[in-house]
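Lecture 7 notes: from sequence to structure.

We start with a single chain of 183 residues. Read the sequence below before looking at the structure.
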Amino acid sequence: MYESSRKGLAMHGTRHAVVVTHTRLRESGTVVEEAVEQLRRADFEVTIIDNIEAPDFGSKTPVVPKNTEIVVVLGGDGTILRAAELVHCTEVPILGVNLGHVGFLAEFESFQMSEAIRRIADHDYSIDERMIAHVDVWLPGETEPIEDWALNDITLERADRGKMVELSIRVDDVEMSSFGCDG
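Now the structure, written as tokens:
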């Protein structure tokens, strides 16, 4: 979660939260409904976004509305990573409530959801910023790379099974390592 220099913004207008989850969670129980109701009781307008698909590498992704104060993710790490697509290049924080299997990226477990929403409403949270990786993919014969970013990990798969993939890792424009591999 992030503490907000956005406090002033939220206190002088309508507060808006985006809930990111899965349709199957909405249809299989009451957790999403309860979270939305708690956010509304805390004076948030709520938008629900279901089933965010992973974007194609190098493509533009949708972004949350400018008036969004917080994104609340109800799901697992995969759902949190999809929500990161929605807030990339914004200052909108993500709060993860783990309803999945692993939950390494989540701040709260499902039984703590009421506490999480109370803390959001009271601006009682701190910032935990994550680093992202800039990724350039150079395709054979191209003069410019396809550019994108990644949070958590990067997975590459070669299109031609008979050829090696050449990888190079740089940190602050300093090459740290390079090697050939099969993916």
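The longest helix spans residues 31-41. Keep this in mind for problem set 3.
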